[in-house]
Amino acid sequence: MSWQATILTLFPEMFPGPLGHSLAGRALRDGVWGLEAIDIRGFATDRHRSVDDTPCGGGAGMVLRPDVVDAAIGAALAAGPARPALVMTPRGVPLSQTRVRALAEGPGAILLCGRFEGIDQRVIEARGLEEISIGDYVLSGGEPAAMVLLDACIRLLPGVMGAAASAEEESFSQGLLEYPHYTRPTEWQGRAVPPVLLSGHHAEIARWRRAEAERITRERRPDLWAKLHPDAAGAGAMDGRPAAA
Ligand code: ADE
Question: What keywords would UniProt list here (predicted)?
Answer without folding.
Answer: Cytoplasm, Methyltransferase, S-adenosyl-L-methionine, Transferase, tRNA processing
